[in-house]
Write a structure and sequence with these properties.
By secondary structure, the chain is α+β, with helices and mostly antiparallel strands. The protein is built from 18 helices and eleven strands. It has a four-stranded antiparallel beta sheet with strand order 3-4-6-5, covered by helices on one side. It holds the Pfam family W2.
Length: about 425
């Protein structure tokens, strides 16, 4: 089949790559039933990337004759006898109006119907969008019979929409993760500042003592903190601070920090059953322990050990370390009603009767018991406020604990405001 360049202006270009078959026509019938059949209209339409019905209808409109294209058989008929040259000229006009780009003249265009029912030609070579003259008769036929979209164009649009949706979902997920991270960081910062404030108060109080008084307590506190992660997959945000309270760990800490004699003194038996003692006032309980009454209650054992430690001349600078090592046995005992107040009164009583140096250790000892959840904030404040309003308002232990209790009150008011 002979080929020719698409567009009359390109007919002399031997290297022009856009080509179409030369038109072949055939006259059929006689009299009033004579018709012109464009034999290879389907091949021409494929080369122009336009439906064959468009070119057939254009011939009928321009010639003022009825035209018909049979989709089933691919037959293109125009009423009347028309020679090939005339129809070829009309085809050139169709190419200029509906095929070639108005910008670059390239025939590689696509018919696009806009939302306002306007027909445009989008060029794939230069990107120019050509506006078709809507006064032409063929435009009405094209609007009623829009061209089928190219294969894959719908899929490409669907893929682009899906890609946009995935990007939006990813951005939303990233925003959620950033918000969660910020909230977690704020919570950590709040708890960390509270801890730092408490440590600052304790270190400020202890700064009045000697360097020898400061170093043992600091090293002991560092060794008692152990980092345990809840799950590896949860990341750094789920890390929890815990202390190993097993009997073996307590023995190891005692052996490392104290001499053999002191270790035997503070080691408490954890195999004895706790005996519930009758309720007594804090003053009577403290006096009972001072008189040497014995009990299987771990808390009473801790009070007796404090008394014995001070009576045996134990250095006041190591009272905080001594309490840290004795916490394993006393932590569960303070869950009973009145036990925490008893422990506070015992510290006040024994340290007040021991020496001025021991009195200075009271706020540090209370801080240790508070950090290890042996003493609760409400009991510490209740003991301090009752002491100030009662007969012990001139107690040196209460005076030493003033800064720590004020810090507790400020921390509580800040948490309520938040």
């Amino acid at each position: 089949m002979a080929l020719q360049n698409i567009g009359a202006s390109n007919s002399d270009d031997a290297f022009y790559r856009y080509k179409m078959p030369k038109m072949i026509t055939k006259i059929e019938g006689r009299g009033n039933g004579i018709k012109t059949n464009v034999v290879n209209m389907v091949e021409i339409a494929k080369a122009l990337a336009r439906p064959a019905s468009y070119t057939t209808k254009y011939f009928g409109n321009e010639l003022g004759a009825q035209s018909k294209f049979d989709e089933r058989t691919g037959t293109s008929l125009v009423n009347g006898a028309h020679d090939t040259a005339k129809l070829a000229g009309l085809l050139e006009n169709f190419i200029k109006k509906y095929v070639q780009c108005y910008g670059c003249g390239n025939p590689e265009t696509e018919v696009v119907i806009t939302k306002t029912q306007m027909i445009t030609l989008k060029c794939a070579a230069c990107g120019f969008v050509s506006d078709v003259d809507m006064r032409d008769k063929l435009t009405t036929f094209i609007l009623k019979n829009p061209p089928e979209p190219k294969k894959g164009s719908k899929d490409k649009k669907a893929m682009r929409r899906a890609e946009k949706e995935r990007l939006k979902e990813g951005e939303a997920a990233d925003e959620e993760q950033k918000k969660l991270k910020k909230e977690t960081t704020k919570k950590k910062g709040t708890s960390g500042s509270s801890r730092d404030g408490a440590k600052g108060t304790s270190s400020k109080k202890k700064g009045n003592g000697s360097d020898e008084d400061h170093s043992p307590a600091h090293s002991q506190a560092d060794e008692n903190d152990q980092l345990i992660a809840d799950d590896e997959d949860d990341g750094d945000d789920d890390i929890q601070w815990q202390t190993d309270t097993s009997l073996e760990a307590a023995k190891q800490r005692i052996q490392e920090q104290l001499s053999a004699v002191t270790a035997d003194m503070v080691m408490l038996s954890t195999n004895e059953d706790k005996a519930k003692s009758a309720k007594k006032s804090p003053e009577r309980e403290v006096k009972a322990h001072q008189n040497g009454s014995k009990s299987n209650d771990p808390l009473e054992g801790l009070v007796n050990e404090i008394n014995g430690y001070l009576k045996k001349g134990g250095p006041a600078s190591q009272l905080k370390s001594f309490l840290v090592l004795s916490l394993d046995a006393s932590r569960t005992a303070t869950q009973e009603e009145g036990s925490q107040m008893l422990l506070l009164h015992a510290l006040e009583f024994f340290c007040g009767n021991a020496s001025p140096e021991a009195v200075k250790e009271v706020p540090l000892a209370v801080k240790v018991l508070y950090d290890y959840d042996v003493l609760e904030e409400e009991f510490i404040l209740e003991w301090y406020q009752k002491g100030l309003s009662g007969a012990n308002k001139s107690s040196t232990s209460l005076e030493e604990c003033q800064a720590f209790c004020e810090w507790l009150q400020n921390a509580e008011s800040e948490s309520e405001d938040e």
